[in-house]
Amino acid sequence: MDLLVDGGRHALALLFGGDGEVWAILRLSLQVSASATLISLLIGIPAGAALALSRFPGRGLVVSAVNTGMGLPPVVVGLFVTLLLWRSGPLGGWEILYTPAAIVIAQAVIASPIVTGITLAAVGQVPRDFRLQLLALGASRPQMVWMVLREARLPMLAAVMAGFGGIISEIGASMMVGGNIKGQTRTLTTAMVLETGKGNFDVAIALSLLLLLLIFLVNWALTAIQQRHIR
User: Fold this and answer.
1) DSSP state, 126?
2) What is the pTM of this model?
3) Domain-by-domain residue ranges, the chain?
């Protein structure tokens, strides 16, 4: 208990004292996860909308694959992304393994099925009659899709929350493709594991508080937007 109290006290000193390394790790984590979330939205929203609004042979299999991907283990993603980016791998010529770009790719792979699945569910809740009415009124299919997405925009905010929350807190993929290199690819989660292993519990607690605060602020902002539109 004393260790926890002392660690918490030292953690606050690190946080409010402006420790350069701690805040550098925070900035990198935010940049990487925000970029990966944006990529996952660009992939997942169109894919989820297309699955929700179309019918084709094998659709059930594709939807099942998306739902399976929503629970994809990060370490599995890290393994396959590492194999792809390895020097002798298909994308080895990019030479981005053990860089922030590799972490962005891995995290985007993790978040994309989550965004796709939630978008699929949100768009699927829009009544079919609403879509048919839009088409009957002369709307083109792209216009109809845009209106349906606008109608489902509030539930789809959950996709942003889930996507960002799922990758900012993961560690397996980030450790495998990033290498946890100091000053280059060390994120909040990988740094926490390293500092805990070294017995630096004060730094680990500081990083965990930063992670929790970051997740809370992002979700608070998105929830405020969602609730304001509901009112």
Assistant:
1) S
2) 0.89
3) 24-186
